[in-house]
Amino acid sequence: MDATSAALLGVLIGFAGQFLIQWRLNTWQREHWTRDSKKAEWRELIGTLCQSARRMLDNWPDVAYEFEPTAESKIKMWRLWSDADFEAVRTIQDRIFIADRLQKEDLLRRWQKIVSDGDVSRFEKGWNELHAALVKAAQDDLLR
Prior knowledge:
This protein has helices at residues 3-58, 71-93, 99-105, 107-116, 120-143. It has 5 helices and no strands.
């Protein structure tokens, strides 16, 4: 092999090496960005559902106060309760990076089931079970 061929081969090998390094770096950056996006979505979802569940429990119609609530206070409780449910459902439905996992977990149906139950103790038990399942799903999703 003459000097020109060797130099050309060196340039080609260098170019191929740079290409592979750049390709791997781009792949790693995309994976990192996706994982960070998933983590942010899980955090927002779990936080919003925790906040909604707490607001619902704090404003459970006919249970929130020890005295007999007035019609006006019942309307206010139902509105707060309904707003909390709406926010939770919106947050479940607007996920992008974790949407497939949420469908697999059947999250929307499970949330709607515990919300529509109508019994505060069953709501609290259902929420605690759902919360534990969400945390486990998030950990599984982010650690694989």
